[in-house]
Amino acid sequence: MAGIALTKISDLIDGNGNSLANVGETIKYTLTIQNTSADPLTGITISDPKLSAGPIAVGDTLAPGASTVVEVEYLLTAADIDAGKVETTTTVLGTAGTSAASSDPVFDLELLEQTSDINMTKVLNNNQAYQDANANGRPDAGEITQYNYTVVNTGNTSLFNVTLADLGLPTNPNDTFMVPLTGLADLDGDGQVDDLAAGTRATGIYQYVLTQETLDNGTFVGTAEAKGNPPGSDDPLPASGSVRVVLPQQPGFVIAKTAGTTKDAADPGEFTDLDGNGVDSGDKVNYSYTFTNTGNVTLTEVKLVDDNGTPSDVSDDVT
Fold first, then answer.
1. Are 119 and 149 in contact (CB under 8 A)?
2. Where residue 224 sits, what CATH number does that domain have?
3. CATH code, 12
4. Which among 45, 65, 114, 174 has the fewest CB atoms less than 10 Å away?
């Protein structure tokens, strides 16, 4: 069975002019149908399961030797671009006189250029380095630094198994934490909502609890890294984003010095009567000291020196 000749030309319509195939753009197929029989060709239909779920009616009656041109547009899907190709097999059917006529199937392979890429940003919520829960005008251990994250699929393919890890405090390799993302989907049908469609974004929020170690660092650059796998690859693409965090350090301390007030074996009181004849030269005055760190950073190499009532004479200082 013959009687029909078919030629097919495909052309990607680059709607956004980025020289890439994108979801929602089209491939235009130009089909030239020629009646090669000796009878008029009627009831012409185009059959291609990729281009249409059912037959496409042409409607023209072609005289022997005559041709007609039909254009069919195919809408690109994410699956097409992730596969990197669109394969079509087209056949034209009709009736030549009283006999069925058909073209030979015409196969076409349209290769689609794939560009997989990922981008991410990390910022401070409202540009604030910390949330001053106790309203004392400084950051303290236990208060919160909130980070906002955005992960964008800037390529034309899907990204799979997308994750976001924040490296936390640069001086602490054990401070890494995972950031949950909203805006992901299950594109590969594996039951995991961890994929990012081309041109879309996912966002995350993490409230980081300030530790004393964080405050002792003061100013640091916090970095996060997003990863996602291109189609058919186990080698993830990375993207990182950083933000400079400035935590004001306010060192401070107070010292309280008191003389003993009780009289027992553990605390003999304000003085010790060494010779039992009342307070006189050579007896001891008993002091207690309380050193309080009133700042928000750790103090090291703390040393307490009492000048023993003689500021100008260091020889009798007590450490």
1. no
2. 2.60.40.1530
3. 2.60.40.10
4. 174
pTM of the model as a whole: 0.80
d(CA 79, CA 75): 11
Q: How many domains is the chain built from?
A: 3
Same domain? For 236 and 274 the reply is no
Whether 177 and 220 map to the same domain: the answer is yes
Out of 53-57, 84-88, 170-174, 303-307, pick the least confident: 303-307
Per the CB < 8 A criterion, the answer to whether 182 and 162 are in contact is no
Residue type, 235: D
**Residue 14: pLDDT band by 50, 70, 90 thresholds?**
very high
Chain centre distance of CA 19:
26
Give me the DSSP letters along 102-162.
EPPPEEEEEE------EEEEEEEGGG-S-B-TT-SSS--TT-EEEEEEEEEE-SSS-BEEE
Residue 69: what pLDDT? 97
Distances from the Cα of 67 to the Cα of 28, 36, 100, 230, 319, angstroms: 19, 9, 18, 44, 109
Question: How many angstroms separate the CA atoms of 135 and 153, rounded?
Answer: 40
Q: Which sign, positive or negative, has the C-alpha torsion 305, 309, 311, 313?
A: negative
